């Protein structure tokens, strides 16, 4: 009876470590797949969510430029959520209307609908800057998918 109890006590740390490792692997898989599926369990897991600031000084210029090509959509309702491997996009500022998928697939499917702007300085083509929503998403994912950020969790 005593030897059985000692065996359980000796094996408990190994069993606990195994259980915690399995749980950790499942959680890492879940977090890595956040923002890749339309289900609410996945689309709520995002690294960052961004949208246009309607109180910004240049918002009216961007909004008027966007509304020329997209008359049925408003710029202030556009929301993008970026996960480790995917993005969720909403054109109506609602969580019920999120379209989610892997970033490259979403870029191919929605690149014509997602706001993108190019600005030139004094009609000079050398002073040109662009704002691409998917480029921002790719940049965030490249900087945050480093294994050193994921493994310590």
TrEMBL record:
Q: Offer a single GO CC term for the protein.
A: membrane
Write out the transmembrane intervals.
15-35
Q: Which UniProt keywords apply?
A: Membrane, Transmembrane, Transmembrane helix
Instruction: Name its GO BP terms in alphabetical order.
Output: conjugation with cellular fusion
Name of the protein described by the UniProt record: Uncharacterized protein
Q: Which organism is it from?
A: Pichia kudriavzevii (Yeast)
């Amino acid at each position: 009876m005593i030897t059985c109890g000692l065996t359980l006590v000796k094996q408990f740390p190994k069993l606990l470590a195994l259980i915690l490792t399995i749980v950790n692997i499942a959680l890492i898989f879940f977090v890595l797949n956040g923002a890749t599926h339309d289900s609410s369990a996945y689309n709520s897991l995002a690294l960052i969510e961004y949208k246009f600031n309607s109180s910004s000084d240049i918002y009216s210029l961007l909004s008027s430029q966007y509304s020329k090509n997209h008359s049925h959509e408003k710029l202030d309702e556009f929301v993008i959520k970026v996960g480790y491997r995917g993005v969720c996009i909403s054109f109506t500022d609602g969580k019920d209307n999120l379209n989610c998928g892997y970033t490259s697939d979403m870029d191919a499917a929605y690149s014509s609908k997602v706001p993108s702007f190019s600005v030139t300085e004094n009609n000079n083509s050398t002073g040109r800057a662009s704002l691409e929503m998917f480029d921002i998403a790719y940049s965030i994912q490249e900087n945050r998918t480093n294994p050193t950020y994921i493994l310590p969790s």
